[in-house]
Amino acid sequence: MATAIMSSSRLMINYEIGMDGEGNPLYKLKSYPNVKEAATADQLYQVAQALASLTNYSLSSVKRNDVSDLI
């Protein structure tokens, strides 16, 4: 039976930074590596909100990207 061992995790925050000439939203993705495995979704969302409050952009989406090795 295969086992998954988490090898890395990152927080990905998507900001809406404005509109293009046709009125479609423009986005900017920021990625923060080395997220602790034990970090909860609530904790990560709070971090994302705190980081977004330091910018002039609105928070569009928050994702956690985990990579696991299968052995």
Automatic annotation (TrEMBL):
Protein name in the entry: DUF1659 domain-containing protein
DUF1659 domain mapped to chain residues: 2-71
UniProt cross-references to Pfam families, sorted A to Z: DUF1659
Domain of life from the UniProt record: Bacteria
Species assigned in the record: Bacillus benzoevorans
